[in-house]
Amino acid sequence: MLLLQSLRRYLLLIFQLLVSTVTGRRHPVAGLLMLLAFPLFLAWQLLHWLGLLLDEILYRGYRDLPVERPVFIVGPPRSGTTHLHQVLSLDEQYTTFSTWECLFGLSVSARRLCLGLAAVDRAVGRPLARLSGWLGRRLFAGMDDVHPLSLAAPEEDFLALMPLAACFLLAVPFPDADWLWRTARCDDELWPAERQRLMQYYRSCIQKHLYVHGKDKVFLSKNASFAGTGEALLQTFPDAVLLICTRDPLSVVPSQLSSLAPARGLCGYPDPDRAFRGQMIDLLRHYYLHLADTLERHPDRCALLHNHRLRDALAE
Prior knowledge:
7% strand; 5-stranded parallel β-sheet; 5 strands
C-alpha cells in the first residue's frame, strides 16, 4: 500500500513540476533540468524499495527487535537541534542514522552491502573512501554555514521518509504537494490510519538500524520536521522521551527563510516568494504552539532546552 501510494505521489510531483514550469512560476531552465533528473531520482527511491523487499526475505528478524527508551530531539529548525544531536551522538550508549545510511542504506540489505564494500575498500587502500571524501567536500562545501554535511556524520532520519514521498525536504522544490504540509502537522492533520502507517514504517526503519548496529544501543533521532509529530512519537514508542529545543522565533524565522533561499533559487523559484514564505511562517508558528502543548501534556517525558543554554552552558 505504501509503495503504491508513493508512486502515485511521485507521479503528482512530476505533474506539478510540469505545471509550474509551463506556467512560468518556475524558471524554465531549472524546470527542464529537474525533469531530466527526476527519472534518476525515482530510480533511486525504487532501489530503496527493492532493499526493503529483500529485508522481508533475508532479514525478517528485524521485526522482533524492541525499540527501547529511544530519544527524539525535536524543535523548530535553527534552534540547536543539530548541535545537540552531534554532541549526544558521541555518547557510546547511543546509535543514530548517519548521512550515508539515510541516502544509501535504509534497508538492512543495503547497509550490509555498503559495509561489505567499505571493508573491501579498506583492504585495498581506501580509494573509494578518499574519492567519496573528495566529492563530499566539493558537493557539500556550500552548505557549511546552513547545515554541515558529511557522509559519515549523524544526520536527520526524516530522509528515511523519502521513499514514501513524505520527507518534508521535498516541500522546497515542490511547495504545492499538500500532503507534505499535512505530514509536517502529523498529529493534527493526518487521519489516524495515515498516521499509524507512517509511524509503523518509521518504527521499522529504526528496527532495521538496530538490527545492524546492535539491539543493546539506545536509538537517538533528531528531526526538526518532527516538531508537529510529538504525540505520534510518544504513542508509537511508549517509553520514548522528547528533547525539545527552542529559540526566539524572531531569530528562527528569518534564519530559516534565508537558509532555504539558495535551494529555492536552484529549483527555479524567485526570491522572495511570498506564498512559500507565508506557508513556512504558518508552519513555524504551528511548531511552536504544538511543541508547547506537547510539553504541557507530557511534562514527565519531555525536556525543554533553550538554544542559548546549549550555547553558553553545554556541559551543564
